[in-house]
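Dear colleague,

As promised, here are the two records you asked about, laid out in our usual form so they can be pasted straight into your sheet.

NAME FIELD: protein one
SEQUENCE, THEN STRUCTURE:
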Amino acid sequence: MGKLLIEKLLRCCPNITMMYVFVRGKDGKNPHERLKQLVELSLYDKLKKDQPDFLKKIVVIESDLEATNLGLSQRDRDRLLDANVIFHGTTIIRSNQRLRTMANVNVRATKQILLLAREMSDLKVI
């Protein structure tokens, strides 16, 4: 879902100047490597053709939704306070996950995002 949302927003709203994207490390890849791997998908072909520099608009925010305060560094947290739109669509629905993991991501992380949103002075929509 997130892959589609990122592509659609950047392609249909070319005036977006910056997009912060929460990415975690996974399978031995750091968040920046995962983003580069993501944009190699054929889904991004039209966007690459129309806006070859679109990657400059994406700012990777290394996060861990299971961690306290979303695993954000103070620098990244401060950067997010300038954002004005939040899309939160992360959820775990696989039944093979531990209940604690599912609760942390599905409930606690959502609460932490809402608390962060309260501090955003220019927030338009969440």
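NAME FIELD: protein two
SEQUENCE, THEN STRUCTURE:
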Amino acid sequence: MGKARIVGIGMDYSATSKAALKWVIDNLKKEDDRIIIIHVASPKADPTNKQLFENTGSPLIPLDEFREINVSKHYGLNPDKEVLNMLDTVSKVKNVTVVAKVYWGDAREKLCDAVEHLKLDTLVVGSRGLGVLKR
């Protein structure tokens, strides 16, 4: 076995971000990998502790804590049960560590920041759903 990888997944609970998560679970998993679910909330959102973490993003939130409704609401999020179930399954069945991190601001910039700050080996995001002509 090689070095465990750190895989980031941009998550906004859209169908394409769920597909990206499923793709990671099915294709990129190695024993002891770490999955970081990266949420980028609107800069206009004003959760309780946004001021503490606005520039650096939230601390890493373990999956067990992230499942708790009070914790996710504390960061201004409303997690999707389907996503949480997929994360629970990969965590338990495939021995993968799952954590979440929340940023506030422009998703393009914050996802690039996440790659640098979290030392991600891979970042997976869903498509925007635009066809060839609209792109």
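A couple of things worth noting about protein two: Residues 16 and 127 are 6 Å apart (CA to CA). Strands lie at 6-10, 34-41, 61-62, 97-104, 122-124.

Best,
R.
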